[in-house]
Amino acid sequence: MTQPTPPPTPSDPPPREPAPAWVMGVRLTNPDRPLWPDDGAGAPISKLDLARYFETVGAWMLPHLAGRPCSLVRAPGGIGGPRFFQRHAARGLSPLVTRVDTEGASGKPYLQVDRVEALAALAQMGAIELHPWNGAPGRPDAPGRLVFDLDPDEGLPFDRVVAAALAVRARLEALGLVAFCKTTGGKGLHVVTPLAAPKRGGPDWNAAKAFARRVCEAVAADAPDRYVVNMAKAKRKGRIFLDYLRNDRTATAVAPLSPRARPGATVAFPLIWDQVKPGLDPHTWTLRTAPAALARTTAWADYEAAARPLSPAIRKLDRG
């Protein structure tokens, strides 16, 4: 007897896209997409995690971003995939992100983060790192801060970087400026001094850059076996490069609390000077750990009040 033909087995339905999520009013597509494969404890960090991180720390970050063009490092498929650097506004950019024209630039509008919600829009784009300019807010031609990037040669112990930060701080404070420190999320530290923008005139970026170089040269002259101001790799062997080159009109520096496109999802974290001592581990602060650490610290609380004019410091340096 002929057996009846069994009905066809239905094919598996196509996989469904995960439902979008909303953070600060921004719709996140593919919110579960891993941007970092491992948070240091074996779990991935997703686009949604990044947006929620920005929601938590954004109000603290905003004064260091607002009014300044901001470059991005984007990794839409995660840090293991293609990455690219974006300076300019492009088609499809969220209206939450400000577009700003700057005189003497490329003619294309730059990106700017002027509201906390814009950070969620950047997370939707897979923007992992934020690198703002260092001009005064709304005045890119006026130096708003100086950044000294302490970049050690491979293999140097981090305690040497700590010593460099303390040496730069001492120089700046002797010149009447106030110094702050942050990790970079990488192998170095940044020493930052906020500047009071003059009402008119005042030192321009050429003068600010020259001042920063002279400070670095003075530190290097005190310990030439430890520090170098020449960026050539051959000159840096076994020493720390005191990088003054971030002090220019369109130069950038990673924002405090910005994540980095690095294993472990480290972030650039603001420090109090009591933390800048032997044993400091810059990998302590990650996208997972930074929010709770930020809630416990008073780091940079007086940053805006600490802004000082640069002219008196230049005159004091000239007098030797």
How is this fold's topology laid out?
Layout: E1 21-23, E2 26-28, E3 34-36, E4 45-46, H1 47-61, E5 70-74, E6 84-86, E7 98-100, E8 110-112, H2 117-124, E9 127-132, E10 135-136, E11 139-143, E12 145-152, H3 158-174, E13 180-183, E14 189-194, H4 205-222, E15 227-228, E16 240-243, E17 270-271, H5 290-296, H6 310-319
What does this structure look like?
The protein is 23% helix and 20% strand. It is of the alpha+beta class. The strands form 6 sheets. A 6-stranded mixed β-sheet has the order 15-16-12-14-13-17, covered by helices on one side. Strands 6-5-9 form a 3-stranded antiparallel β-sheet. Strands 1-2 form a two-stranded antiparallel ribbon. Helix 1 runs antiparallel to helix 2 (117-124) and helix 3 (158-174) crosses helix 4 (205-222). The relative contact order is 0.15.
Helix content: 10-25%
Strand order of the largest sheet: 15-16-12-14-13-17
The percentage of residues in β strands lies in 15-25%
Structural class: alpha+beta
Q: First CA to last CA: what distance? A: 109 Å
Query: Which value, in Å, is the CA radius of gyration?
Result: 23 Å
Q: What is the β-strand count?
A: 17
Task: Give the integer mean of the pLDDT values.
Answer: 93
